[in-house]
Design brief:
73 residues, mainly alpha, Protein Yjbj, Chain: A
Length: 73
């Protein structure tokens, strides 16, 4: 999945982000606003992981994204 699509549809995928990283608060999600570097920083902060680990987690999460993430209900 293209990160631009995730960023452009951030409000639709916030639930998926919360499922993946339960320690992220609603405020964290709002601050991230689809920006990958912000998401990485919040994951590092909340989970105490290094930048490369946060990026690895984001890449794995991004690879799971499919069209069902963007369907409007």
């Amino acid at each position: 999945m293209n990160w631009d699509r995730i960023q452009g549809n951030w409000k639709q995928v916030t639930g998926k982000a919360k499922e993946q990283w339960g320690k992220l608060t609603d405020d964290d999600i709002d601050v991230v606003a689809g920006k990958r570097d912000q998401l990485s920083g919040k994951i590092q902060e909340r989970y105490g992981v290094a930048k490369d680990e946060a990026e690895k987690q984001i890449s794995a999460w991004e690879s799971k994204a499919d069209d069902t993430w963007f369907n409007k209900h």
